[in-house]
Amino acid sequence: MSKNVYEELENIFRAGVARVDPALIFKKHVFLEQNKLLIKTETVSEKYDLDKYNSIIVLGAGKATAKMALALEKLMGSRITKGLISVKRGHTEKLERIKIIEAGHPVPNTESVRAAREIASLSREGDEKTLFINLISGGGSALLSYPYEDSSLKLSLEDKQKTTELLLASGASIQEINCIRKHISGIKGGRLAEMMFPADSLNLILSDVVGDRLDSIASGLTVTDESAFVDAVAIVEKYGLKAELPGKVMELLTRGSAGNIPETPKKGDSAFKKVRNILIGTNLTALLAAGEKALSLGYNVKLLSSRIIGDVKDAALMFLGIGQDIEIHNLLAEKPACIIGGGETTVILKGKGLGGRNQEMALHFLEGIYESGTGSESIYFLSAGTDGNDGPTDAAGAFASLEILREAENSGLDLDEYLENNDSYHFFEKIKRLLKTGATNTNVCDLQIMIVK
């Protein structure tokens, strides 16, 4: 029976991912009627008369952007003058009119810099007869790296790489990480919008951020920035990173907080009068689809939240506690039950192993089962990233259950050792309990699915 449960967990996850396939999203929300481009969502209705424009330039960055670009090419064809997008290596599609650069993620590389500089150059080509269509999804922060520079201070790619690595290892939230990214960048935090002015820009955005704040997705390329240099300095101090950050980065943040470097553009800036940002897909969309699939398989379904954040261990133990209450008391939902949540948790890196937050959560789920001592025989868990890549690995996530814990014990795996070294990937690889989907070319955070039989 347990084999079928793991298959059901995977099928429920894949149903959620399928619903946020950019091609499907575009088919649902983006239309062409004669020579008018229409965008219709549950909350937005926009129309662009394409006859007004001498050129239509497509730009973009993110893990889902290639599929978004493919859908747009199929819809608009030769109406697209030219374009350029930056995607994570391997997250590609065959495009005819829009150029692709495969760049580094989660840490930017030289291709990230090349992509940012080429997109910045294209963005400055526009005039009042130009329409920019920007395709933005999660991952765009690393995939467009434009180190800040002025007449007296110039950051390097290495400065940004070191800063990104430190932030990712610190346990900082994505909003905190992006606050600093914006203030050490020449293109993020609304600066791309400034470059495109006075052209019109339509920005179609797929959210990978809990709460769907547009200023956090891909570090808010086309959105006013509410954060300031002083906020960035406070984040550095909060996580004790001042002594470790590159000297030029600290100099930039310190000078900015003293008012000696221009802030990122704020509300009221004239550039944003020509900008339209539209959210076309979210984690909640995936949760709802996963819930529909679980219902069709005969489960009593409860959707917890699309906003699960915080430490992976806390999230894992929350799910396990809910599962144990259902197992023993039928609390929250009667068996057979399927509990589904989503969001983006964080990991504080202590070791040098390989893994991602979803695999780490599954490992902490096993730890919770072990420490419980008894029960949990009917609880099965999966945590996985909708982009198909959990951290710097080729796995989307991992499964967890009492059965899997016993498999690990029989294989002689020391749970504490792998947790201490943040080596969840190799733990689950040894017992063949990783979920590998390959790159999905979409990205709306993570899904957690728990079945209680």
Short description:
With 453 residues, this protein is of the alpha/beta class.
What does this 3D model show about the protein?
By secondary structure, the protein is of the alpha/beta class. The protein has two domains: 2-11 and 284-452, MOFRL domain (glycerate kinase, domain 1, 3-Layer(aba) Sandwich), CATH 3.40.1480.10; 25-146 and 185-227 and 264-281, 3-Layer(aba) Sandwich (Rossmann fold). It is 39% helix and 19% strand. The chain has 16 helices and 15 strands. The protein has helices at residues 2-19, 22-29, 65-76, 110-123, 140-143, 157-170, 174-183, 191-196, 229-238, 247-257, 283-296, 312-329, 357-372, 402-410, 415-420, 424-430; strands at residues 30-33, 36-40, 45-49, 55-61, 82-88, 98-103, 130-137, 200-206, 275-281, 300-303, 337-343, 379-385, 397-401, 434-435, 446-452. A six-stranded parallel β-sheet has the order 6-5-4-7-8-9, with helices on both faces. β2 (36-40) and β3 form a beta hairpin. α1 packs across α11 (283-296) and α9 crosses α10 (247-257). The longest helix has 18 residues, at 2-19.
